[in-house]
């Protein structure tokens, strides 16, 4: 990643300086002072003793066991599994700093395009709906329904359940008389609609039980509304969700993920799982009985962006859909989507057409936990579904169709994921085991099935590559982090000197070019230093740390800083002299490389007579200089 332009750098540095790293990290895990630093138990490995260190003086953090570290941005990125831009926005909002908008983002505060205003309007609306459910006489029927569903007051409070009266402008009137949110703002937030005939605004969720939908940070971004049983409204749909807005997309969010992630974070690495169901009350009842790692889709089937979201937090997804025919059909529809994802997908089919809420009410949480433990692998589910009711030995045509269906589904998994070297071992093993079982079931040689899988993968390869490119995200398999031990010792020392002595950057940049460095991470950091210096800034530790958006490079820069300070106390050579020694080494390496290239050119006779003479004279001068011999004088 190259240097960020100075205007963006100023904003990033302002946000970084406004965020105290001890305060930020302390919001996520307990810290205690240990000398000049703070320490805490690292959340990313089984930390028997505190190994995560926070340096308030340098505003940096580091876990030496996990080999991760950086600044406030990279801590938030690591902990929240988000990108740099989102981390910057979150910290800017927390610090009360307005990010400098671009020319196309000149949004007036309080307008329908202002996200901050939309967040405020949605939170205000959630409070109005909750107060209505708790206190309003017109919400009596809604309160009875909640009681009949056996949802406790604690659950109602935790999920922020509310009610919207059956009135065309109940919320609009309260907005005009209260916070002053305009109808245009409420429309942009998805809270009201506008008649195409009269142009009048109306409440979207009238006469419905309200389920606030929150993002992973716990901010209200939308609502789901359920009509009460027996109600006769103009919109008979059982559920109505907010439309797509600036803050909400049903394909990017899952109900109660903000609550479930609290439980998921406490699970050990490799054991993190989430249960996905279909309904709001399914989630609420599951959490109420202690199954608080359950989330729900929002009126749509699971899609690729849901998978990206879930892969930030979990290793395994258990998909629980209703046991009725429609539920099973939806299971098969989304199966191919998961089959190629590097995430363990299990399928749970509930008996007798029950939904999760009814199952939990009738049978309790323990049978549900047992069924979750017995949820079958997605590939196994596909095999059972495809072969159900078929006599594989006698019904040859149907058997061949079923086998082709199964193999086509398996082939949706890219070769580099499922069957090639470097694929996750458990994924390769599952595929091998399934093919062996299919060979036995269908009475075919296993190598024929493997050959057919290869044909199908080659057939779909262009499409698969395009799909994978569209789905590429930080949450797909991340690249290996650069390690200091892999870098050239001289390049490490160069950066160590510059972390502690930015005043030496001018000398270093003048004498050592980026092209002379071997390691790409070192070159990126060095170019970043160059960019800050060229734009009139001081390339000190903090400015460089802020300019590096990549968490791996931030981690390297922090480690270099720690090493440099540890060496400084015992160093017997002045830093400028150490740098001059490095400059001589780089200069000699360049001279040696040039000499080697010149010799090759002479040997291969690629030069004309004059060029040969010039090269020979240059080589002789280099040798004399190297051995301290003066050039002969004329006369």
Structure write-up:
There is one protein chain. The chain is 52% helix and 11% strand. With 635 residues, the protein is α+β, with helices and mostly antiparallel strands. The strands form four sheets. It has a five-stranded antiparallel sheet. It has a five-stranded mixed sheet with strand order 13-12-14-15-16. A four-stranded antiparallel sheet has the order 6-9-10-11, with helices on one face. The model is unreliable at 1-7, 416-425, 462-479 and 629-635 (pLDDT under 50).
Radius of gyration: 32 Å
Question: Could you say which structural class the secondary elements and strand pairing correspond to?
Answer: alpha+beta
Tally of separate helices = 27
Indicate the overall shape.
globular
Estimated helix fraction: 40-55%
* Order of strands in the sheet with most strands: 1-2-3-4-5
Number of strands: 16
Mean pLDDT: 81
Q: pLDDT under 50 segments (min length 5)?
A: 1-7, 416-425, 462-479, 629-635
Outline the biggest β-sheet. Answer: 5 strands, antiparallel
- Separation, N- and C-terminal Cα atoms: 58 Å
Share in β-strands: 5-15%
Write out key terms for the chains shown.
635 residues; alpha+beta; 5-stranded antiparallel sheet; 5-stranded mixed sheet; 27 helices; disordered N terminus; disordered C terminus
